[in-house]
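pipeline/complex-builder :: batch 7 item 3
reading input block
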Amino acid sequence: MSRKQKGPLIIIGGREELAESGKRIILKEVTQCVSQHKKGLVIVTVATNLPEEIGADYVRAFMSLGIRHVEVLDIRTRDQAFDADNIQLLSDACAIYFTGGDQLRITSQIGGTPLFQRMLEIHQEGGVIAGTSAGAAAVPDTMLISGDGKESPRVASLGMAPGLGLLKGVVVDSHFAERGRLGRLLGAVAQNPSNLGIGIDENTAIVVENEQRFRVLGSGAVYIIDGQHISYSSLSEEDPQGSMSIHGTQLHVLTAGDRYDLLQRQPLPPRKWKAAQQHQEFTL
Amino acid sequence: MSTKRLGKPRPSKTKGRLIIIGGREEKRPDRDRHIVEEVAKAAHNGRLIVLTAATQLPEELWEDYRKVFKELGVKNVELLDVRTREDAYDPKNVEKLTDDAVVFFTGGDQLRITSQIGDSLVFRRMRDLYENGGVICGTSAGAAAAPETMLIAGPSDESGRVSALDMAPGLGFIDNVVIDSHFAERGRMGRLLGAVAQNPRNLGLGIDENTAIVVEQNGNGKRFRVIGDGAVYVVDGTHISYSSLSDRNAEGVLTICNVILNVLGAQDEYDLSKRLALPRKPEQRNGSKKKSKS
C-alpha cells in the first residue's frame, strides 16, 4: 500500500451548478484536484436511474472546464462491479465522482466488490472522491436513507444503513435547508450522538482533508449538529410516533470559507483559522 | 449542556398566561385536539373572544372556531372583528373584553394585528386583562405577534441571509423571545437563526404546526410547557462565539457558531429566565398520550 496521504473527500449537498453560465465553484474545485494529478476523472452513475443523461451532463461540464479524460462508469447490477473492463476503467483515474440518485443503490451494488476496492486504493493513493446528494449521503460509515423532510424528529420515520465508510463518526444529509431536513438529521444524531450530523445545502460542499478537517465552499450553508452534550433525549422511552425531545444540542452554521476541525469538533470561522494558520496548526 | 444566562432579564410579574400555537391546530372532534381543549379549558368559566384582525377571511375563521369551542363546552364564544383602527377604538368592541374574557388571535398577517390594534383601546384593555391574570392565545400570525419583536417575513427552505429578514415591533406580551410558527413544516430554521443572530438577547422559539407552548409566570421569571403533536425548537444564542452578521455583504449566507438547540416534545418544560430545558416528569413519560385522550 502506498504511504501517500489519502486524497480529499468532496461532499456536495446536491444541485451543484453545472451550466457554464454559473460560477461552478464546486466543479472547479474537483477540476483543480484532477489537474494536480494529470490523470482522469470517472463519473459513477450507479445511484441514478438515468445514467446516460446524468453521466453526459457531467462529462460535458467537466470537459468544458478543461479536463481531458472524463469517463462514465455505468454500473447497473452487482456483477458489473466484478467486471474486469469496468475495473480497468479506473486504472488511470485519480478522481471519482458519485452522482445523485438513491444511496442504497450505491452501497448495495458496489459495496464489497473489487471495483470498490479499486476506488479505495485510488483514494489511498491521494485521489479525490466526490459525491453529490445520494453520493454525499453514502460517504460516511452510516448513511441516512429515509426520513421525512419538513417534520420534527420522530423515532419511527428514520432509516439508516451502512455506508461506504470513507469518513467515520459523521452522518451526512444533503438538500438540507431546501428540503427542511433538520428534524431528520437531529433524529439521526440522537440515535447515537457519537456521530456528528453534517447537513449540506444545495450548491454547497465540504472538502474533507485527511479525515480531520474540512472547509466549506459554494453558495449555501453547512449545518453541524454536535450531540456530545445532549443532556436529555426521549429516544428510548417514547412511543415511536411521538415527537422526540432532544435537549442541549450544539449547532454551528458554516458558510463558504469557514473551516471545521473534525477531531476537536470545533468550527474555525475565517478570523480564527487565520490565527491558527499563523501558528502553523493548519495548512489547508 | 447547562446554559447559564450571562445577563439577568428584566423581572416581570405578569400573572397572565399565554397559549402560543404554531398554526394548524387540530380541530376535528374525532382526533386528539389537545390545543383547542387547552384553550377551552382556560375559558371554561368565562368568555372566549376570537379576534380576527390578522385575517382577510374573518367570517370563515370565526365560523370554524365558534363551532369548535362550542363543541368543547365554552358557553360564551364571541367574535371581535377588528378590521380598522377605528374598530379598535370602538367602545362596543372594548366592552366585549370583560374581566373573565380569554382572547384568541387567529392566523393571517401579523402586521395587520399590530398595525390595526397596536396601542388602541382594545389593545390596552387586553394588556390589562393579561397583567391581571388573563389568558391570551394566538395561532400562526397570532403567535408571531405575541413578543415585543416579531418576525414578519423571511424566506423558508433556505439558510439565513443577512438581507432576507424582516422584523417589526410586536404586541409585547412576552419579552426576550422571537417566535416563528409552522416551523418544521415550512423549513424555517434558517430565518429563526438569522433573527437570533441579529440580537442573541432574544431566544428563538420555533413552533411546529398543531403544537403549542403554555407560558406561565414562575417566581420572577417565566416558564413554558409544550403541548400537541410536534416539536418546539428553542434556539439559544447566549453562547454564540462567532457570527458573520456584521462583516459580510447582505446577500451572503450567515455563519453562526455555537448555538444551543433544544428540541422539546409534548410535556417538556423550559425555564425562560434560566434558559434551561427541563425533561418531562417521569410520571408523564409513559401514558401521557393515553391520559390526554380522555
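note: The mean pLDDT of chain A is 91.
queue -> next item
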